[in-house]
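In this section we walk through a basic example: taking a raw amino acid sequence and producing a predicted 3D structure, encoded as discrete structure tokens. The instruction is simple. Fold the sequence below.
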Amino acid sequence: MITLFGFGAGFGLPEISPFVTKTEVQLRMAGLAYRKEKAMPPASPKGQLPYIEDEAERVADSTFIRAHLEGKYGFDFDAPLSLQQRAQAWAFERMIEHHVYWALVGARWVNPENFAKGPAHFFDRVPEHQREKVREDAQFRVAENYLLSGLGRHGPDEDVDLAVRSLFALSVQLGDKTYLMGEEPCGTDATAFGALAGILTPYFDSALRERAEKFDNLVAYVDRMMARYYPEFAWKPLQEAVAAA
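The resulting token sequence is shown next.
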């Protein structure tokens, strides 16, 4: 059986990491049996999560995991798509993972209130005399990567403005369809869902989340994907969560 290594549930989500979420949803799309174990990035062959163990093989990075699943198990995640649509789906996936994702990182790690509420707790098991230094070092490294991504070079409003242009592109692409590319899900839906759910979880307050909430079709899309692929998770549709707050 395949073993998926990820962070686990947290932050109001069935899985903390958008990339682990992507792989887990794709496993469910393919109908492949798997078990899940918690891990931290240093355990991975590439120093990042997710990674899987499939018999004697270890595969790291969500994109290479997808390629492994398609090659070994013969499941085509983009089967409903034409060649042109496959190219478009790949372009949207790159936009999500190299732009929208970094906006999410900024909202979680660079925002001091959200960092204290969320990622800071990754280090709760570090010995007390080292804990604060380890937290500060980790936040610094992530903030440095955020800077290198390009978004971190802009002001607090400008980075969100740029991210929202990508959300607008996703909203236009989705339109009134059930999934990004049509009425059947494809591999990129797993990617989009992981990132959008991470932005829209009511656990964190941010300007990015406030702006994302204005895209009604993206909010409904996350609710729909959650109901289909994580029916066991007690996700409250965002509109209900906001109304109850």
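Looking at the output, two observations stand out. DSSP finds ten helices and four strands in the chain. The mean pLDDT is 93. In the next section we compare this with other chains.
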